[in-house]
Prior knowledge:
By secondary structure, this protein is mainly β. The protein has three domains: 180-447, Pectate Lyase C-like (3 Solenoid); 458-604; 607-750, no CATH class. The strands form seven sheets. Strands 1-2-5-8-13-16-19-22-25-28-31-34-37-40 form a 14-stranded parallel β-sheet, covered by helices on one side. It has a 14-stranded parallel β-sheet with strand order 3-6-9-14-17-20-23-26-29-32-35-38-41-42, with no helix packed on it. The longest helix has 15 residues, at 2-16. Calcium ion binds at residues 201, 204, 233, 235, 651. The site of calcium ion (CA) has 5 residues, from loops.
Amino acid sequence: xxxxxxxxxxxxxxxxxxxxxxxxxxxxxxxxxxxxxxxxxxxxxxxxxxxxxxxxxxxxxxxxxxxxxxxxxxxxxxxxxxxxxxxxxxxxxxxxxxxxxxxxxxxxxxxxxxxxxxxxxxxxxxxxxxxxxxxxxxxxxxxxxxxxxxxxxxxxxxxxxxxxxxxxxxxxxxxxxxxxxxxxxxxxxxxxxxxxxxxxxxxxxxxxxxxxxxxxxxxxxxxxxxxxxxxxxxxxxxxxxxxxxxxxxxxxxxxxxxxxxxxxxxxxxxxxxxxxxxxxxxxxxxxxxxxxxxxxxxxxxxxxxxxxxxxxxxxxxxxxxxxxxxxxxxxxxxxxxxxxxxxxxxxxxxxxxxxxxxxxxxxxxxxxxxxxxxxxxxxxxxxxxxxxxxxxxxxxxxxxxxxxxxxxxxxxxxxxxxxxxxxxxxxxxxxxxxxxxxxxxxxxxxxxxxxxxxxxxxxxxxxxxxxxxxxxxxxxxxxxxxxxxxxxxxxxxxxxxxxxxxxxxxxxxxxxxxxxxxxxxxxxxxxxxxxxxxxxxxxxxxxxxxxxxxxxxxxxxxxxxxxxxxxxxxxxxxxxxxxxxxxxxxxxxxxxxxxxxxxxxxxxxxxxxxxxxxxxxxxxxxxxxxxxxxxxxxxxxxxxxxxxxxxxxxxxxxxxxxxxxxxxxxxxxxxxxxxxxxxxxxxxxxxxxxxxxxxxxxxxxxxxxxxxxxxxxxxxxxxxxxxxxxxxxxxxxxxxxxxxxxxxxxxxxx
Length: 750
Ligand code: CA
């Protein structure tokens, strides 16, 4: 009996496989393309384990639902596609799995494309368990997508997209032809790994549609994905089409927002936003008609303005499709917004964006937070939003909309890791109990490690050295990423420029001095980050050369964002020519952070930081955060910081500049200092200059360009130093700056 049953099953199974079904095992590109030409429904191509170099894979084939065409790795995770490579699929019922794209970049506009070419799109096809890891074009401002989805009924699931540092959307759903619309694609269970700050527009992690086709429905489902530190730019997800469902995704420590930028009737539900207090972590931004935003959970978000935990925008009357369509019929229901700084309503109201939201409702939302001041920012008439049965835990702020009552309730963390009111009487507010945040372990390819958090400068070992010829060069060559090179007492003479291609700390004893006889001592290269601690560096032996700089970047672009930290250093005598800088950042290079603290600088002809490589005004700047604390600057010819962020685009959060508790004496008065300033900031978005002393120096010059610059200059003392100069280049009205408790005196002040 059992034998007979098995026989029937076997027959059924055999009948589903076409007679011609073949497995093609290939280990070179010629055999691959020969096999590709022969493919029939049910066939499989297996790539042999190993590294495939410069492989532009095409797969143009017709499978069926029962007998798809497969392209797979001999062993998932053991097939690496590197060099100048990409993958394009076109046809029907194709499944690709198990590949890694690493150590290279696509020579075309996409790494993975769901179209063979403009005429052959993919339908009913799937890419799963594929990894794209730092597969970046050499120039960070050279544009591509890592994944372009065209056609219909495709699925992209359980993939890892990690470390995109060049310009262009990580994953784009395109609607640029009729058969790519109402596509029913499903994008699920993917790991969107860290996407560093791009320093320009074009750093979105996921975009669905474009403004040009925003009147069409995409009907794409984006669910159960994990967005880990996706910081590329202000939009993490930009929905630019209608009828999409964005559900059950986790946004972990990601700066930016899920933005319903264009298109109507999208559903955004059961997503989890966890900011952990990181800068610019936002939630959901609503524009257009008929958007439903319900049962989303936001905690610890620090975004403001357009990056608030929740932003309901003002629109432009009769808006063209590429501007801002007025919000109407929005339903914002049952969301929990905890310990977050801002909810912005009628956001962005100005002379152009004058159409306030209408026919909308906010109901059953539960809110805490507002430690940075009143949580609600209301920028225009909100009578078009009906508030019903919302609650905020805590005292009422001045600008609470009616319909948000204040309650006293205690929140407790449930098994799912989320907070809920302890008392059942409040269970009508906020997210439902059955939310289950997707974890990192449940997404992506199970066989590929996901990047951990942690400082670049930690995790290594310490190598101790003492002065002798070439000792620093050798130590750097031997060091591994994260290592500390501990320099013993004495003088070190360096005769070459030290290339830094990993994260390295050089730590002196306090009695350690370095002199050098090249135009630069350090050159930051791909993968390099540099921390200097407890060192004295003297530039008196450096030759007169164009572009002298103690620390410079390579003359070609650098893909990876880097860090430079100077802590307890003394740097002097960089004066052999008129423009000798301490740190000079070149074109297409980007520092996540430059930190200077407890340090002394004297007799320097250029700048401490020159970050002005941008000339085209595309808004492609050099540094996201520049922070200086507890430091002294004396006899500096240029401005200590010259930071330039051009253009009028509003897609970045930075640059940020902080100067605190520092002292500047005779700074910025070099006759070659064209900026005529002690600090020159052009286009910085966040500036704080607090508790400093400026003596016999040039003024601070701040040019505001775009966005809503937040500039605060307070509690400084200016001795024989001209007043702060603030200019608004694209804004009518008084300069937007907080100037308070600054003292100006004349004299010899110390
Ligand atoms: Ca953008």
